[in-house]
Amino acid sequence: MSSTAPLAAEALTPRSSSSSSRTSLFQPSLTLSGIRTTVKYRNQEVCTSAAAYHQSALLHTQLEHSGASSTVHLRLNNIDPEAPPFELGDTTRALWSALFPYFAKGREAPETLQAEIVLPSEVLHQALLALGATHQELQYTLSRSAIFQLFQYASAERTPLPFPYLPTTAPSSLVHPLRPSKPLPTSPLYSRLIPHLNSHFKLAVVGPNDVPLLHGWLNDDRVDEFWQERGTLEQHEKFVAERTADAHVIPVIGSYVETTPEGEMAREPEPATYSEIYWVKEDRLGPLMDVRDYDRGIHMLVGSNAHRGPHRVRAWMPSLVHYCFLEDSRTERVVAEPNAKNAKIIKYMESIGFKQHGTVEFPHKTAALMICDKADFYSLCPF
Questions:
Q1: Which GO molecular-function terms appear in the entry (predicted)?
Q2: CATH assignment of 183-380, among 4.10.520.10, 3.40.50.1220, 3.10.20.600, 3.40.630.30
Q3: pTM of the full predicted structure?
Q4: Would you identify the CATH topology of the domain 21-154?
Q5: What is the dihedral sign for C-alpha 29, 30, 31, 33?
Q6: Which residue has the higher pLDDT, 309 or 170?
Q7: Does the active-site annotation cover 157?
Q8: Which of 122, 225, 337, 361 is catalytic?
Q9: Which pLDDT does position 325 carry in this prediction?
């Protein structure tokens, strides 16, 4: 995902519960541009949303309760009758933006949501189908799983086509798919609104300026217990340089970003995690398991003591896995091999959809082989 100047944004959960009704701007990621979404809350629940796009188009949604069931009514208005016709891609992106607030409620989000089109609109009908909605008579059923699988709509750019499948043996004799070029150092990869923290969590590629930060984290006794990478600043400069040059791994810093109600950055991003995202087939783990071409692996640590705890894990760990599934749609599994003695991290991983598949032996540790299947992850949606 590419970085652009963000629109005004606010977390889904209102910052103050003193008012039973309020309206605020909503931004699912830090990179979404061209769409301005406004959300009205009543008693801290999303009751309406409006996405402005396409010069003068306004896509309006309203949640209506009827007994135990709820339905979102959709209406697409064109304020300027002389404006160009609605384009399906733009309308689908705006519809996703207008619907996302109903699902961005963490574990309280509904698995499905019913929707109806108020004013007949063929482009709105096609946009609903593009979001994976099933259609029966006048009602559509939207899936939470589909909405999160289509999170690329929160990107500033259109979703790219998958990189072509081209088997290669370079630079070794191992046959694996040719991989796309790695993102450059400091490139933004992913960002997502974290409702329960009233902030965004973002991932970016490690750059040279991150070395001192990583140096401090890797020398922390808590981190060194499992990572065993204690060293000098020069050694950690080499540590980053090696991973930057390695084609199969992306070193990543995860940070929290707080915004004001007007969408401006409230303070400097707070770095919290370091991760390595790698292609398993080209990794040391590959020969030790039944590996698939597009399995993605992760190494991870929480470096900041100020950002530890289960409520923080719910922010950064699912985001890391979510990025892996989004980055290449052919990735069906995310794999990790934490130290089998690290019961805490294994428990956290199981809470977001990982399952243990025995152990694997490395010279320096016995590791738990943890695998998260895409179907399990999106069924659970552990956000």
A1: N-acyltransferase activity
A2: 3.40.630.30
A3: 0.89
A4: Aminopeptidase (3.40.630)
A5: positive
A6: 309
A7: no
A8: 337
A9: 97
